[in-house]
Design a protein that fits this description.
This protein is of the alpha/beta class. 35% of the residues lie in helices and 27% in strands. The chain contains twelve helices and 14 strands. Bound molecules: adenosine-5'-triphosphate and magnesium ion (MG). Residues 15, 20, 38, 40-46, 58, 60-61, 205 line the site of adenosine-5'-triphosphate.
Length: 331
């Protein structure tokens, strides 16, 4: 069977003239677990909120582009968002159980969509609680208020509530970040099981979780999609240096090069003198890019510069013989 996709095409989200998502293009494989990763504020939640049109809830946000699900552009104004939200369920970081019993929480969606038959509702409630790995813990107290459950149980209840309306897509926005490791593990196990039937698009700050769960990874940074691909490829061989830095837990510093010096023809100590000479003619805050072709220079030049109070932004291999050192002048 050929792989099916949800296609995101030229998606932009704006807020008061700022672009919160910029030209996002990606094909999301169906019935897989897709993890959106990236630093705080990069647009993970915003991207998730496009799939169920939660962005409509904020009048200050506007959007353009297309998201094709089964050939239908769900961003089209004519789309019935109530129907859409039944097929695209969302669980968020903090569980929000409705102020009613455990049973009624799960039965809420099916009832809203017209289900009145008690035995069918009983069946759906049990099935959904089972799928959320909560049934055994609550089966004897279905009529108790949902707010009496622990936070981890409440999150699984929210998962059951979403599953009860039989969605096709499940959006999980940092769904385990507020949970203890045991509850978090339970949710992860259910997500893995559910991915056989559902397309799961989740955001996470937790790289280990993404490694455990993801089939496909999307890396976003400041509203732009930087890199995406099968999880194995992204984790083993990220192509973009921003993704590389993020996966290593390093801070990625934005910079533009103001000056460049090729040191490949100079040995020590001339290469260091040339570096100093270049820095002497630069202003504080400016960035110098050096190219070297010995491992000694790659080690010694940054060491010397750091001792003198300069900031090494990074060292990088260019090819088998050459490396670059990027330094910001601070002194
Ligand atoms: N309702 C809103 N109105 C205006 N700007 C918003 C709104 N919601 C989010 N933003 C902005 O959009 C950008 C992306 O926010 P978003 O919540 O998607 O980030 P995130 O990647 O989910 O971050 P985090 O990891 O902290 O959850 C941020 O700059 C944020 O300030
Ligand atoms: Mg978020």
């Amino acid at each position: 069977m050929s792989e099916k996709y949800i296609s995101v095409e030229e998606l932009n989200v704006y807020y008061q003239g700022h672009e919160l998502l910029k030209d996002v293009n990606v094909n999301i494989p169906e019935k897989r677990i897709v993890c959106i990763i990236g630093p705080s504020g990069s647009g993970k939640t915003m991207l998730l909120r496009c799939f169920n049109r939660f962005i409509d809830l904020n009048e200050e946000l506007s959007f353009s582009g297309r998201i094709l699900m089964d050939g239908v552009n769900i961003l089209d104004k004519s789309v019935d968002v109530i129907k859409l939200r039944a097929s695209v369920g969302m669980i968020s970081q903090k569980p929000y159980p409705l102020p009613m019993s455990i049973y009624d929480n799960v039965a809420y969606g099916p009832r809203l969509h017209g289900e009145g038959d008690k035995s069918r509702l009983d069946h759906t409630v049990k099935e959904s609680l089972n799928q959320a790995a909560l049934w055994d813990e609550v089966k004897d107290r279905l009529n108790e208020p949902a707010t009496k459950l622990s936070i981890g149980q409440q999150q699984r209840l929210c998962l059951a509530r979403v599953l009860a309306v039989k969605p096709k897509i499940l959006l999980c926005d940092e769904a385990t970040s507020a949970l203890d490791p045991v509850s978090s593990h339970k949710i992860e196990q259910q997500i893995l099981k559910l991915s056989k039937e559902y397309t799961i698009i989740m955001s996470t700050h937790n790289i280990h979780q993404a490694k455990r769960l993801a089939d496909y990874v999307i890396y976003v940074y400041l509203g732009s999609l930087i890199e995406h691909g099968p999880a194995k490829e992204i984790f083993k061989n990220p192509k973009h240096e921003r993704t590389q830095a993020y996966l290593k837990g390093e801070y990625y510093e934005e910079y533009t090069v103001d000056r460049e010096v090729d040191l490949r023809e100079f040995g020590e100590p001339v290469n260091y003198m040339k570096t100093k000479e270049a820095l002497d003619n630069m202003q504080v805050g400016q960035v110098l890019r050096l190219i070297v072709n010995t491992r000694e220079a790659l080690k010694d030049i940054p060491k010397g510069l750091e001792t003198e109070g300069q900031k090494i932004i990074h060292r990088k291999t260019l090819n088998k013989k050459d490396w670059e050192i990027v330094v910001r002048k601070l002194e």
